[in-house]
Amino acid sequence: MYSLGMRREFSARHYLIGGDWGAENREHAHHYRMELVLEALNLDRHGYLVDIVEVEQHLEAVVADFAGHTLNDLAAFAELNPSIERLTTILHTAFRTRLAHLRLEALTVTLWEDDIAWTSYRAPL
């Protein structure tokens, strides 16, 4: 199985809902570090897993949908707690949709909200 990973960083704001999490219930910012990993059994006829330039364009578009925004205000988080786990799943869905035309076996999104806390979501395609 081949894997190809790419990273991006972006900042966004959020506040947690549905529980008493102290300061986390007040709007605050995170500088997120995201890693996208694509997996496939075979390379294309040029010896590539994917066209990196194309994947970079999708990365930029997805990040633009979240960067600089308050996550709670986005339709994807309507009535949902914007936890790092939920954000990772929503990012995964966005990439899954955008990259559906590629012959991938799996896609993983890993997201750090600081230097010690991260989450990851991997699913076969």
SSE blueprint and pairings:
Blueprint: E1 2-14, E2 28-40, H1 52-66, H2 84-98, E3 106-112, E4 118-124
What does this protein structure show overall?
- The protein has one domain (2-124): Tetrahydropterin Synthase, Chain A (2-Layer Sandwich).
- Helix content is 24%, strand content 32%.
- The chain has two helices and four strands; from the N terminus they run ββααββ.
- A four-stranded antiparallel beta sheet has the order 1-2-3-4, with helices on one face.
- Strand 3 and strand 4 (118-124) form a beta hairpin.
- The longest helix has 15 residues, at 52-66.
- The protein is elongated and about 55 Å long.
- The chain starts with a strand and ends with a strand.
Instruction: Note the total helix count.
Output: 2
Superfamily at the CATH H level? Answer: 6-pyruvoyl tetrahydropterin synthase/QueD
> What structural class do helix, strand and pairing data support?
alpha+beta
Kindly state the mean pLDDT as a whole number? 96
Poorly predicted runs: none
Helix content: 10-25%
CATH fold topology:
Tetrahydropterin Synthase, Chain A
Order of neighbouring strands in the sheet with most strands: 1-2-3-4
Q: How would you characterize the largest beta sheet?
A: 4 strands, antiparallel
Number of domains: 1
What is the class in the CATH system? Alpha Beta
- Residue fraction in strands: 25-35%
Q: Can you count the beta strands?
A: 4
CATH architecture annotation: 2-Layer Sandwich
Based on CA atoms alone, the radius of gyration comes out at 16 Å
